[in-house]
Each structure stands twice: as C-alpha cells, then as structure tokens.
Amino acid sequence: MEEGCEFRQWDDLLPDALGLIFRNLSLQEVLTVVPRVCKSWGRAVKGPYCWQEIDIEEWSKNRCPENLDRMLRLLIPRSGGSLRKLCVSGLSDKSSFEFIANNAKSLQTLRLPKCEISDSIVEQVAGTFSNITFLDVSYCIKIGARALEAIGKHCKCLTGLRRTMHPLEVIDKLSQDDEALVIATTMHKLKQLEIAYMLVGTLSIMEILKNCRQLELLDVRGCWNVNLDENLVKKFHKLKVIGPLVVDCYDKNGWDNCSDYSGSSGYIPWDFVAGDIDDDFDDDEMSDGYWEDDWEDDQRVEDVEMWFYDDLNAVDAGYDWPQSP
C-alpha cells in the first residue's frame, strides 16, 4: 500500500479479519459475490475463518435434501476442523447427520430444529459430540428419551438444551415424562432448559430441579400439567421459570422466532463498497478460467448460485400454526 494513502485497501486485511466481516453477509453473498471481488477475498471465503460458525438455518428451510446435503459437504470441510457452531433445519438424510458427526470434534453449538433424525442414529454418533455445550432439537418428532439419554451420557459439557415442541406434533403422545426424567438424570450441568409444549408433569420437573442444580432458566410454557409452587421456586435463587402460561406470537411460516433464549444468530444484512479491485486482477484472468481453477470444492460458483434459486416457489412444508416461544 502506498505511503500516505488515506484509505487502507480491504484486500490487504488479514484473512481472520475478513472472516469476521464476511460473517455479517448473507450466505448467498458470501458464496457467490465475495469470491468475485478480488483474489484475496476469494481465498478468505475458501479458508476456515469464514466457516467456524455456519448458520444456514434460514436458508435450509424448504430446501430439498439433496441440496441441503451438498451445501453441508461444501461448507463444513472449509472450516478445516475448527467448526464451533452449526445451525441447520429440516435435516432428513442420515448420511448428512453422520457427516456432521464426523466433523464435530470442535463443535460447541448445534442447532437442528425440525430434523428427522431417529433415536438409533443419535445413539450411534452421540459420542462424537462430546464438546457440545448447547443443543437445539426442537420439533424433532422422531427422537425421544433414548436419544436424549445418549446425548446426556456423552455430552458432559452440555449447559443448554432446547427441546421445544408444538402441540399438534405431540397430540398423539400420552406423555413425555420419560424425556424429562432422562434430562434430570444425565444432564446435571444444564443452565438453560427450554421444553415448551412438552407433555410433562410437575413431578418430572421437580426431578429436573432437584438434579440440575446449576439451572438458571427453565422454560415450561405450554406445559399445562406443570404446577410449581412459587415458594418452592424461590428457594432456587438463580432460577428463572417461564410458563406454563403462554403469551405467544404468530408466524404464518410455522417457524420459531420468538424465543429470547435460544442463542441463535442469523445473518445481518450488510451493504459494502469494495473499492478498487486488485490492480493485477483483470478481465483476462476471468476469461482464462480463473474462477473455475480457483474453486477447489468441486463446485463452480455458478453451480452454487443455482442452489439459491432451487425451490424458490416452493410452499412451506410446515403447518400453518402459531409460533412456539
């Protein structure tokens, strides 16, 4: 950079700094716009600093399983084993979940709402999630006490669990007290527990309070069979109990956006002016196949672009229901 230059070139920034900046862009912009700005930005997008936290929860809604799996297999390897947070919804492919498990050695936060994983699959791979501190398995109707027990036994660092359900999804169940009791017996380090709309009773919740002594937040909104004595709750000085009374909000898409405690972080829209492109980066390089040669994930930028237009007019596969907290 020339001495006395008033502005520093953005392409001179270190990759880790660029990674922090690009994290505020939408997934589509990071994958299809940023790589075309300049070489250094393209290299940064392919490096691990952009992908230590992967949040495709919003993007993955309504996506076909094939494209969802392809996106995971494109992004996760880019983290270089440093993936700390992964948010994805509607996961239905067993191989996709196993792929996540095989790359989970550094994973601390895992959000898998509305995924169709089963108890047996969770039991097989729970041991690979030993470093997980926060887990969201809300609306995962195919798992139950067996899966939660496997998670509790293997994920000893777990301090936050979100297991929010919807009344229509559990209407055919007699009880989910077995899940609550498993939580009480295997997840003693929990500080945050959200089990809104689960079919649990007072005795099960009392077991959780008795065994999870570090609990700071308990969300039992919509758990109508729970009746906690206020004087008893006051004995737990650090504990905040929400519910069972529900003050709900409505979203036509049937996806949960109302919890203040979920720890989710979506992409923030961000407009930027890139400034001057690299002086040595010209149209000739593009005509020489620069992008094809530099895209080392076996996916060309143009191919990835198409993933964002796939299922564009698809109707939400979820129910038209009020939002859970």
Automatic annotation (TrEMBL):
- Which residues does the UniProt record annotate as the domain F-box? 10-52
Pfam families from the UniProt entry:
F-box
| PANTHER family in alphabetical order | F-BOX DOMAIN CONTAINING PROTEIN, EXPRESSED, F-BOX DOMAIN, LEUCINE-RICH REPEAT DOMAIN SUPERFAMILY
| Protein name (Swiss-Prot/TrEMBL) | F-box protein fbw2
**Protein species of origin:** Nicotiana attenuata
